[in-house]
Structures are given as C-alpha cells and as structure tokens.
C-alpha cells in the first residue's frame, strides 16, 4: 500500500471483532482522539468510518488506531498506519502532543482531513474556529509566536549546556549563550510551549522543528 507521509505504516495490524464504538466521555479530552469520515460504498450506500486513538497506548505503551464502520469495530493498526476504505485509504499519524494526521487519501491522490467528533477536544476546537473565527485565529497566532519565542530563547542555552560536556568541549570548544534566563522563566517557557503544541495538535497542525519532530524519529 502506498504511503504519502515520510513514515511507513508499521504493518502491525489486526482484524476487527465487531464490538461497538465506545461513546466519547468528557474526561477523555486529551487522552483520546475520535474522527469520522462519511463515504459511499460500492453499492451506493452511505457509511460512516471512524478512527479512534487512545494516546496513552496499551499495557506496553504502544499506540494503536481502531477503525469502526458504522459504529462497529472493523480493524486495528499500530501507528503510524493506514486503513483501506472505499475509494482510497485513511492515514493516521501521531506526534508527541496528539494527532498530526488523520486524512482520507483517494486513489486519485486527492485528500481531505477527517471530521473530529463534536465531543472531542479536536471537535470543540473546530467549533470555536467556526463560531468565533477571529478568536480562533488569534489563538492560532499566539501558539505560533510562543513556540518561535521559546525556541529562540532555548536553543542558545541548550547549546551552551551541551558544550560544557568535557568530550564535546575538548573537540569543538565551549559556547557562551548570550541569553541567560532564570529557572522559573525557563520552566514557564516549557509549559507555554507544551500548551502551544497541544493547541496546534488539536487542529492537526505540525511542524518538525516547532513541534518536536526532530525528536520523533522523522526522516
């Protein structure tokens, strides 16, 4: 099966057992992602495909995506993964903050993002975008600014810390960061960065540098 992302499906998949799709509970907001896709089957009948991801993973810490067809379990795949559906496939990829991809890719190469369940955190964020676009855009811009500022302030300090290791210092010398922030401010930047990346994940926005992809094993 073709794959449009940089990471390949793991190949660890299982057939569905037909159990019903569990209802989405409010306390699952940041632990579960649920997206839906409405398609027409080869016989002309409308059907709903749903992808359910529990970010905490299983007992071994492995994160899986469960596929449901009209509310019944149809398959399971280790992430990143892809599910064949009528007319194409559903691709699902996670990041360290949520989902970075939940898209339907048609055989002709066209694609569209799946629709988040209204009860999910992604669904509530999408509703804000529809009902208060100005506020939504302001939040989006603030998230980007926070990540850019946090990266600009953190990188010089990180380089200084790394070059203090004797093995590295002997080979390339040390670096003195022009930026020195108190511990409380560095901690605040980390917390703000986590919140900003989480907000971006709710919109399935992802940047390899800003959202930590360099540490996710991406090529």
Spatial strand arrangement across the major sheet: 1-5-4-3-2-10
Provide the succession of SSEs. EEEEEEEEEEHHHH
Q: What's the gyration radius in Å?
A: 20 Å
Rounded to the nearest angstrom, the distance between the terminal CA atoms is: 19 Å
How many DSSP H or I helices? Answer: 4
Count every beta strand, where a strand is a DSSP E run of 2 or more residues: 10
Proportion in β-strands: 25-35%
Instruction: Let me know the largest β-sheet.
Output: 6 strands, antiparallel
Globally, the shape reads elongated
Key attributes of the depicted protein:
single chain, 219 residues, six-stranded antiparallel β-sheet, 10 strands, 28% strand
Fold and architecture overview:
The protein is α+β, with helices and mostly antiparallel strands. Helix content is about 30%, strand content about 30%. The chain contains four helices and ten strands. The protein has a six-stranded antiparallel beta sheet with strand order 1-5-4-3-2-10. The chain starts with 12 loop residues before the first strand and ends in a 17-residue tail after the last helix. The N terminus is likely disordered.
Compile the SSE list and pairings:
Elements lengths: L12 E3 L16 E9 L5 E9 L9 E6 L2 E7 L2 E5 L2 E8 L2 E9 L4 E3 L1 E2 L4 H11 L1 H30 L3 H7 L10 H20 L17
Antiparallel strand pairs: 1-5, 2-3, 2-10, 3-4, 4-5, 6-7, 7-8, 8-9
Helix pairs in contact: 1-2, 2-4
């Amino acid at each position: 099966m073709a794959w449009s992302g940089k990471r390949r499906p793991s190949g660890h998949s299982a057939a569905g057992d037909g159990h019903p799709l569990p209802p989405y509970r409010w306390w699952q907001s940041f632990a579960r992602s649920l997206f839906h896709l409405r398609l027409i089957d080869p016989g002309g009948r409308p059907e709903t495909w749903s992808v359910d991801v529990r970010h905490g993973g299983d007992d071994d810490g492995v994160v899986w995506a469960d596929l449901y067809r009209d509310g019944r379990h149809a398959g399971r795949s280790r992430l990143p993964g892809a599910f064949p559906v009528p007319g194409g496939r559903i691709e699902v990829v996670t990041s360290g903050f949520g989902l970075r991809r939940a898209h339907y890719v048609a055989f002709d190469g066209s694609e569209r993002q799946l629709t988040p369940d209204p009860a999910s955190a992604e669904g509530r964020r999408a509703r804000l975008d529809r009902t208060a676009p100005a506020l939504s855009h302001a939040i989006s811009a603030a998230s980007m600014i926070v990540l850019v500022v946090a990266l600009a302030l953190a990188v010089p300090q990180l380089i200084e810390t790394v070059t203090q290791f004797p093995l590295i210092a002997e080979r390339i010398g040390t670096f003195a960061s022009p930026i020195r922030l108190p511990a409380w401010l560095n901690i605040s930047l980390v917390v703000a960065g986590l919140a900003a990346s989480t907000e971006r994940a709710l919109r399935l926005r992802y940047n390899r540098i800003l959202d930590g992809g360099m540490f996710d094993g991406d090529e």
